[in-house]
Amino acid sequence: xxxxxxxxxxxxxxxxxxxxxxxxxxxxxxxxxxxxxxxxxxxxxxxxxxxxxxxxxxxxxxxxxxxxxxxxxxxxxxxxxxxxxxxxxxxxxxxxxxxxxxxxxxxxxxxxxxxxxxxxxxxxxxxxxxxxxxxxxxxxxxxxxxxxxxxxxxxxxxxxxxxxxxxxxxxxxxxxxxxxxxxxxxxxxxxxxxxxxxxxxxxxxxxxxxxxxxxxxxxxxxxxxxxxxxxxxxxxxxxxxxxxxxxxxxxxxxxxxxxxxxxxxxxxxxxxxxxxxxxxxx
Length: 282
Fold this sequence. Notes:
Shape: globular
CATH superfamily of the largest domain: HUPs
Oligomer: single chain
Order of helices and strands: HEHEHEHEHHHEHEHHHEEE
Radius of gyration: 19 Å
Largest sheet: 6 strands, parallel
Structural class: alpha/beta
Distance between the termini: 53 Å
CATH architecture of the largest domain: 3-Layer(aba) Sandwich
CATH class of the largest domain: Alpha Beta
Number of helices: 11
Number of strands: 9
Helix content: 40-55%
């Protein structure tokens, strides 16, 4: 067995065999689910995993179930060789990288849906997205059987949905949220940033700047609808083509905001890229 093949496994049986071996040594296991095209944000997830567990599994699977027919499944960046290097350097112990037939064999017919969180914000604009997310995350948690699972706060609604999923289904894993990693100009790191042109990269930080100012305004007592509308106008004036939403929600449940700890979440289109971001309120 080569060094690379011992690090990468592609079938569930081999994955579980390795996890059982670690369990026999009383090792705690963390998993970092990804779709590849790894960046510093993913490295931060692995680093946090190493802080809470003895062994870290990363997964790479570009999940077709969470892409609508009009979305970028075929174009989504795939660079496994580079990702293996990133993961090794970050200190991960294993990469689970199955193909589509391993995850969705002939006859696969099950979907997981988290009502409520499935329909708002991202769910309203990508109606099939979170069913795909919930289904693949449930499978990965059952396949890897970790003590901890690490997810970035950049996908904040996804993080809330996964916490609800795990609680509702009694999956024995602690979900750990990791703060968003940003470029020096504030742009949240994302694999889809690769779609941005040089000119668009200069405009992209306006999304973070606009929602950050809205958060500060709300804390100061500003009119909330006016603060959110001002954020939308600032995003559009920076060169974004369309704003899907800018909204403030309760931080823990994403219910309508009624004060206390909140979260502003936003999504907007810039060229080929659809960027999402969020910031805390209060």
